[in-house]
Amino acid sequence: MIEDFRQRDGTADIVTDICIIGAGAAGITLALSLADSDLSCCMVESGGMDFDSGIQSLGEVEQTHTDDGYVCHLRYFGGATNHWGGWCAPLNTLDFEPRPWVPGSGWPIRKEELDPYYTAAQAICGLGPFAYDTDDLPDDSRDYRLFNDGKLTTRLYQFSIPPKRFGTAYEATLRNAANIRVLLHANITHLETNRDASAVKAARIRTPGGTSGRIVAKRFVIACGGIQNARLLLLSNETEKRGLGNSNDLVGRHFMQHPHAPCASLVTADREAVTHLFDRFHNDGFTFRASLGPSAVQQREHNILNSSATLDRSPDPVSGVGALRHIWRDVKRGEWPDELGKKLWSVISDLDSLTTAPQLMTLYMRSEQSPNPESRVMLGKSHDQLGLLKARVDWRLTDLDKRTVYTASRLIGEELARLNVGRVKLPDWLTARDANWSQELWGGCHLMGTTRMSDSPGTGVVDPDCRMHTVGNVFIAGSSVFPTSGYANPTLTIVALSLRLADHLKTLND
User: Fold this and answer.
1) Phi then psi for 90, rounded to 5 degrees?
2) Measured between alpha carbons, how far is residue 382 from residues 60, 208, 234, 388, 389 in Å?
3) Cβ neighbours of 246 (radius 10 Å)
4) Beta strands in 160-252 (DSSP E)
5) E strands along 273-339, which residues?
6) In angstroms, how far is CA 284 from the centroid of its own chain?
7) DSSP string spanning 9-39?
8) Which of 14, 35, 280, 498 could covalently link to 177 via disulfide, CB atoms 3.0 to 4.6 Å apart?
9) 443, 259 in Cβ contact below 8 A?
10) How far apart are CA 258 and CA 273, in angstroms?
11) Interatomic CA distance for residues 469 and 158, integer angstroms
12) pLDDT digit string (tens) for the chain, length 510 residues
């Protein structure tokens, strides 16, 4: 059943087994999985079925040291999947492991525990088989094993084509589910707790028009996104003054995105070779794209984070001639490191002999960000139209984040030169010590880490089952529980973790 909370009759509490706060990828996946259970479930969504600028304004944030990318959280049914690009990939095994060079790294679960849920998540996201290894591809002309010196590895993305809009795709299923009740235009403003804040008794609802109410549930799942999950806990401070579950001042900290940046220019006269390494392709009716990133060995050797790079062709291929001459000039001046100069692509040593017009392409990096406690979501000083304090976001990059983008770009340049595929030129901002990185890159709308998963309350907000360490009947779903982010877009992992959480909820006894 789906209903508009603004039109409700009466003031009686809504009583349910499970209250899901948020109807994005995490919330809808949970509701779909619980629809085959004996549990009653009420899912609450701030917006309606369509975008509304007034409702969207409830998610505005105050920002510092950051970009303006926080329109990425959409407040209507389907959440961010309403403008999702469909990029999917699982996290790598190394992403789950403690890495001595990455402070705060290590998940309390292993990737193997999540693999069955990754497999199930494929269908929900509109994807094919769970196949992200080059060995799973058919034998064709794409030789992804060219990188035999162990520096690089091919990362595969699958695409939901067209991108699965969870709200549209699953509206009918949820509308017809006997045990699922969806409330639209219902804003959760506060979580009411017992005396010692060890459990939540009810969630308060209010609309801009003044309609209000309460949901009383045995268990609550917060699935509002990487910023709003933390904000709701911080707003729920009647009993615990620093915010619900925030006695260790960890709610909102370790805020991560995926730094995205055009980090190099590539000139090539062999577009086919580049196409084989980077272009989209089809396999068994599904769409893939290959990318390159440093291998696990190189991440350990250089003490860097994970990353992935793709290439896009410049709209004006003729401009490749100018870039080519610029690169060659720098080599002759000795401005390239010796090891790169020695591997100079032979065809550019004599520009006049070129018989194929060079192609100029841009290398785009999507990088992991380190979990920095000073990068965080807090409560600001201004209020939204419901009278609630807005979130204040302070997104900060560390030296490790910057070193990763530089080193990964350099490694890719070395390998493309070794393979005679092309020549890479790094931009000045990437190598300058005083560069303003915040003007050169953006976060990719991937909001992670603010209620991180851990084995103990001293290092995180939720346990390995996504239950809050100090609030026994509250769980958190979505990318805010990621301890580290890896390089991969988070949607597939969000769905996998939500399926895992749903299975856990089904096993709990009253």
Assistant:
1) -80, 165
2) 10, 17, 15, 8, 6
3) 22
4) 180-184, 187-193, 200-206, 212-222
5) 280-283, 286-294, 307-313
6) 27
7) -S-PPEEEEEEEE--SHHHHHHHHHHTTSS-
8) 35
9) yes
10) 28
11) 35
12) 999 999 988 788 999 999 999 999 999 999 999 998 999 999 999 999 999 989 988 988 887 654 444 557 889 999 999 988 899 999 999 999 999 999 999 999 999 999 999 999 999 999 998 988 877 766 554 555 455 567 888 888 999 988 999 999 999 999 999 999 999 999 999 999 999 999 999 999 999 988 999 999 999 999 999 999 999 999 999 999 999 999 999 999 999 999 988 888 887 766 666 666 676 777 777 888 888 899 999 999 999 999 999 876 544 433 444 555 555 455 444 444 444 444 443 434 444 444 455 667 788 899 999 999 999 999 999 999 999 999 999 999 999 999 999 999 999 888 888 777 777 888 878 877 666 776 778 888 899 999 999 999 999 999 999 999 999 999 999 999 999 999 999 999 999 999 999 999 999 976
Q: In the structure encoding, which two tokens stand for residue 281, read together?
A: 């392709």
Q: What are 404's two structure tokens?
A: 């990763």
Q: Where are the domains of the chain?
A: 1-125+162-250+373-395+446-510, 126-159+257-372+396-442
Token code pair at residue 116: 């069955």
The two structure tokens encoding residue 462:
């939720």
* Interior angle at CA 20, CA 17 and CA 23, nearest 5: 145
Locate 368 and state its tokens: 């992991």
The encoded tokens of residue 344 equal 């100079």
Tokens 């990068």, residue located:
375
Q: 485 in helix, strand or coil?
A: coil
Point out which residues pair with 267 in neighbouring strands.
360, 423
For residue 447, give the amino acid letter: L
Distance between CA 393 and CA 167 in Å, rounded? 27
Q: What angle do CA 324, 329, 334 make, to 5 degrees?
A: 130
Q: Which residues contact 337 (CB under 8 A, 6 or more apart)?
A: none
Q: Does the domain formed by 1-125+162-250+373-395+446-510 have CATH 3.50.50.60? A: yes
Please tell me the distance from the alpha carbon of residue 480 to that of residue 497, in angstroms, as a whole number: 11
Query: For the CA atoms of the chain, what is the radius of gyration?
Result: 24
